[in-house]
Amino acid sequence: MAFPNGFLWGGAVAANQWEGGWNLGGRGPAMTDVTTGGTVNEHRKVTYIDKDGNHCTMLQHEKLPEGAHYAVLDEYHYPNHEAVDGYHHYKEDIALFAEMGFKQFRMSISWSRLYPTGLEKEPNREGVEFYRSVFEECRKYDIEPLVTIWHFDTPLYLEEHCGGWLNRETIDLYVRFATTCFTEYKGLVHHWLTFNEINNTIMFLDFAGGEHADQEYQDAYQHLHYQFVASAKAVMIGHAIDPDNMIGCMICGITNYPATCDPKDILACQHQWEKNIYYCGDVQVLGAYGSYATRLWKEHNVSLDITDEDLELLSAGTVDMYTFSYYMSSLVTTHKVTDQVAGNFSKGQKNEYLEYSDWGWAVDPDGLQYYLEMMYQRYNVPMMVVENGLGAYDKVEEDGSIHDPYRIDYFRKHIKAMEKAIENGVDVIGYTTWGCIDVVSAGTGEMRKRYGFIYVDMDDEGKGTMKRSRKDSFYWYKKVIASNGADLD
Ligand code: BG6
Predict the structure, then answer these.
(1) pTM for the full predicted model
(2) Measured CA distances, 261 to 122, 194, 264, 331, 332 (Å)
(3) N or C end of the chain: which has fewer CB within 10 A?
(4) pLDDT digits (tens, 9 = 90+) for 226-241
């Protein structure tokens, strides 16, 4: 059997998409709390009040105008405020995960629930106790928590008043937060990820489209550098607090293929891997910038604030495992793109050999095997697939059942691909499907884009009872786990 004993089967969510309780228990706001819902065709918007008191919106990557402040406005619905109310339903949800046989549950800690503005010297005790109770609940069922320390949710106060990740001081504020996590949950949590999909910052520029001024690249690379240093410091502290801690990076894993055999496409594809994928993995796993980094910076006249001490930290604070999300592959070409597709922070020519989800994401299980084999060859550290899944419309039948064979089919193919990689020598130690329970979509803010084995009665307008029910895929995944991946029928 390919899957090793003790393989960590499970599922994943993030605080801002699952928890809700945005203003409960002393929590401060994060960017998602001033972000509206959207659709596949209509971007989510960030709301604010301008210097003259007008209610305004802007796109997520735009900068707040001079004199404006972020604001929650009555005329909009903010899906992350309540999300699927994991804040009040976590016991029920974890019991359902246990019923499926989860060995591992990936979730994140909302920074602003522990440090409401990010600047406090001491954590908010109510927030600390909330997560303790969640982890204790997991332990009750022998479920190992896999905890993401930062999943896209810097406290809004730091973003608005302190320059967010463009300010070097944010490193120490993050480290204080991470240290609190390692100290408070010592013994309850052993597996940690420092930053979710850290490479998105750079991928987002291509994804957003249009021409970008050099300053945008300067900011993106600087932001990343400070996060690398913060991650390295956190890894060292995490190991010092508990040598049993296993700490990973988390990369948005897109498998890039050249669209044609034109050597120019092959080279462009290699450069895409370097910019979007290796750039972060090399720093976090190998402890140094790759040789191509100088070229990337030169292309946009980037000049970074990097000190010698930073470089020493990067080399000392390398991660123990390589974890990544995998949803899709992408085609790279230097030729005219005739049929463009976009999804999960990447854009490219449509691949005629693949099928696409209703949200335009390529379904490519072979790409998962390819990615696992490539990355293991490069890094030779244990790997986990910590997000994988299909966002789809689900229909609740009159009798309350939910038939989702498309989801089962997607998982079956991806688990088989992972199995082949393991047979080929890759050390994969865990797999957590994305949105094991329906959550708010990060990209579109929709509820109708569902990933879960567990259905949540909540719609895009915030109407619903929050009742949980089991989809067909729930029973299927339970069988997969019980057979340690042998029974995929
Ligand atoms: C990843 C994120 O990018 O993809 C998750 O880490 C996100 O937070 C997931 O939810 C799926 O994307 P979406 O936009 O369908 O929610």
Answers:
(1) 0.97
(2) 57, 38, 8, 12, 11
(3) C
(4) 999 999 999 999 999 9
